[in-house]
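FORM 7B: Structural annotation worksheet

SECTION A. Query
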Amino acid sequence: MIYCVVEVAQSDPMRVRVMPRWLWAVLIILVPGVGAVAWLVFGRPVRSRARKPPTRPTAPDDDADFLRGL
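SECTION B. Predicted structure
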């Protein structure tokens, strides 16, 4: 239940599904078991599974130009 309340508080209000974020928090607190499971199944924002590759090197040793200059 605590995990779900924290997740509701940290989630983007525009990405929460089915009900407004504040209503999910009230549901989780008033109906602990059912509200938490409902949040996990129906309310939680869908995470994008495709990760975009970084547009620039993440570390100096990944950058060919940097290594050439050593």
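SECTION C. Observations
The longest helix spans residues 32-43. Residues 1-45 form one domain.

SECTION D. Sign-off
Analyst initials: ____
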